Amino acid sequence: MASNAPHLTARPGHPLKGTVRAPGDKSISHRSMILGAMASGVTEVEGLLEGDDVLATARAAEAFGATVEKLGGGRWRVTGRGGFQTPTGVIDCGNAGTGVRLLMGAAAGYPISATFDGDASLRSRPMGRVTDHLTRMGASFDWSGKPGLLPATLTGGMLSAIDHVQTVASAQVKSAILLAGLNAEGTTSVTEPEKSRDHTERMLRAFGAAVDVQEDGEGWIIRLKGGQPLTGTAVSVPGDPSSAAFPLAAGLIVPGSEVTVEGVMLNPLRTGLFDTWIEMGADLTIANRRVSGGEDVGDITARHSALKGVVVPESRAASMIDEYPILAATAAFASGETVMRGVGEMRVKESDRIRLMVDGLRVCGVAVEEEPDGFIVTGGPVPGGATVHTAHDHRIAMSHLVLGLAAEQPVTVDEPEMIATSFPGFVEMMNGLGGEVG
Ligand SMILES: O=C(O)C1=C[C@@H](OP(=O)(O)O)[C@@H](O)[C@H](O)C1
Ligand SMILES: C=C(OP(=O)(O)O)C(=O)O
């Protein structure tokens, strides 16, 4: 059935040129609100991503008892009470897996109860990967519908430390356990065979907690002693590499383009996409490397490039798990096959991202093969001229819009309002660079 909801269309034929600033990193923005609310005293944040996901976490921080004030564009102040109180209403995390899973971990260590919910996409995502471990630590969960799916009511309290060995690299699972571990008796450990993003560990240290990380034969072991208080601090949020990927991708695939994105975080646990593009022959240069807010950042320039397909190492998956959709869009313009395997986690994001990319690329005329834990894109001419279903998923929408800027015919996406979950200024930025999205 045809939908009357607004759609967004990207039209080809316009080179993108210019310099833009990456929006604030979503992972760090969520964490600044959550740790700020757990801490005692004032946390001042600059460069916060004011996307819908983070704003839902800011409202949650307030509901748990912190005072949250917007001081100006990207500047926020969180005054924490050194713990969470029972909220009056439901904690609605919207579309945000990071928000709900980290908040559950944070709340589990306090003697409170709270009901968590989210939108249709979040209600379909697995929560057991976090709640099973929090239950082992001593929290309990009531599921009003299917066990393991939101909505869920958490009862927190006195927790005991656990030792957890990750079976999939997930920073959300690691972070939920560590945040609960802060208020557990004993030392909590998380062992990671493949390293996932380490923003929680870095931020816990900035808030005054000791976090020990050691490498051994099994991987990396992160240890955190319970009972450590957090103290509010200043947080400077670097630019989000997962968002910077979209204008940079357009720079690579639209003929005649040259796009610079400033202030992009270069934490090596987040830069797998840039390494992959360079292996594909991308003209991608990084200038002005510096440290800002405790993270490496730099200014990245992408120029239109003749790309060639590659086999992406499976060991790189965690460092670019959110970037496979945009990688696939650029791979459609590369010569030969780009093979992306070991990315089964993509199926439990805001949508089944393997399925959605396969369907979306196919309707745009791209040759793509689906596998249980991955997919293979064969580059060539990209006809476009299609409407893509995005299943409430911001990255599926943005990836196909970027594809449409370089295809033979325009590409339209449905549910474009979801883009605001992670990248509220996306359309304005792409048009400001000379693209045509509207
Ligand atoms: O910890 C985080 O901030 C995130 C971790 C990743 O999820 P997983 O932990 O499920 O891999 C990523 O996909 C998500 O966008 C943000
Ligand atoms: C997977 C993502 O986010 P979350 O898990 O927080 O919904 C994402 O932003 O691509």
Explain this structure to me?
Helix 8 (241-253) packs parallel to helix 12 (394-406) and helix 10 packs parallel to helix 12 (394-406). The longest helix is centred in the first third of the chain and has 13 residues, at 26-38. The protein folds into two domains: 7-24 and 239-437, Enolpyruvate transferase domain (UDP-n-acetylglucosamine1-carboxyvinyl-transferase, Chain); 26-236, Enolpyruvate transferase domain (UDP-n-acetylglucosamine1-carboxyvinyl-transferase, Chain). It has helices at residues 26-38, 52-63, 97-108, 120-123, 128-137, 171-181, 199-206, 241-253, 272-279, 324-331, 353-363, 394-406, 426-432, and strands spanning 7-11, 17-21, 40-46, 67-72, 75-81, 91-92, 113-117, 140-143, 152-155, 159-160, 163-165, 184-185, 187-192, 211-216, 219-225, 234-236, 258-265, 283-292, 295-303, 311-312, 337-340, 367-371, 374-378, 384-388, 409-414, 436-437. The chain is an alpha/beta fold and 438 residues long. 30% of the residues lie in helices and 30% in strands. It is globular and about 60 Å long. It binds shikimate-3-phosphate and phosphoenolpyruvate. Residues 1-25 are annotated as: Disordered. Pathway: Metabolic intermediate biosynthesis; chorismate biosynthesis; chorismate from D-erythrose 4-phosphate and phosphoenolpyruvate: step 6/7. Its main location: cytoplasm. It catalyses: 3-phosphoshikimate + phosphoenolpyruvate = 5-O-(1-carboxyvinyl)-3-phosphoshikimate + phosphate. Keywords: Amino-acid biosynthesis, Aromatic amino acid biosynthesis, Cytoplasm, Transferase.
